[in-house]
Amino acid sequence: MKVTVAHLYKKLDELDRDVVELKKLTDRLATDREYSPILKETFLSEMAKLEDQKSEILGLRVEKLGSTLKPLKSKPNQEDPKPLERAKEEVTLSLPQEPKKTERPVRKY
Q1: Could you tell me where the Basic and acidic residues compositional bias lies (predicted)?
Q2: What are phi and psi of 69, to 5 degrees?
Q3: Cβ proximity of 9 and 3 under 8 Å
Q4: Each residue's pLDDT tens digit, 9-54
Q5: Secondary structure (3-state) at 88
Q6: Distance between CA 31 and CA 27 in Å, rounded?
Q7: Quick one: which H or E segment has residue 2?
Q8: CB–CB of 43/26 below 8 Å?
Q9: CA distance to 17, 25, 54, 82, per residue, from 51 (Å)
Q10: In terms of pTM, does the model score above 0.85?
C-alpha cells in the first residue's frame, strides 16, 4: 500500500487531537449521574485504542524505492535540511489488517 509520510503525520495529529478532546469530555462528566461511570469507561477505552493506533503508525517500517528508512523515535535532527522533502515523497508501507470488531451487547436501562 502506498501512503505519503505527510498523510501519516496528518493521521498522528488527528489521533492526538481526538485523545485531547476525549480527555476534556471525561473531565467534564458529572460524577453524580448514573451513566457517568459507563461513559468514562467508554472514553478511556477509546483513548487507549487511539494510543494503540498511534503506536502502530510510529512502529511502521518505511521503505523508499528499495532502501529502508528507520522510523523516527524523537524530533528530527535540526542539522538535517531535508525532513520536509522526505515527508512529501511517496513511500510504501506494509499496514497490518484491522481485526474484525466483535459485536458487544447493548446495555439497556
Answers
A1: 76-91, 98-109
A2: -105, 140
A3: no
A4: 899 999 999 999 999 999 999 989 999 999 999 999 999 999 999 9
A5: helix
A6: 10
A7: strand 2-4
A8: yes
A9: 11, 17, 5, 28
A10: no
- Between helix 5-28 and helix 36-58 the angle, nearest 10°, is 160
20 near 50, Cβ under 8 Å? Answer: no
Q: Which amino acid type is present at position 80?
A: D
- Torsions phi, psi for 93 (to 5 deg): -125, 145
Edge-to-edge strands, sheet with 2-4: 2-4, 90-93, 62-64, 67-69
- State the cell numbers at 11: 493521521
Place of cell 466483535: 102
Per-residue pLDDT at 57 exceeds 80: yes
Q: Residue 5: count other Cβ atoms within 10 Å of its Cβ.
A: 20
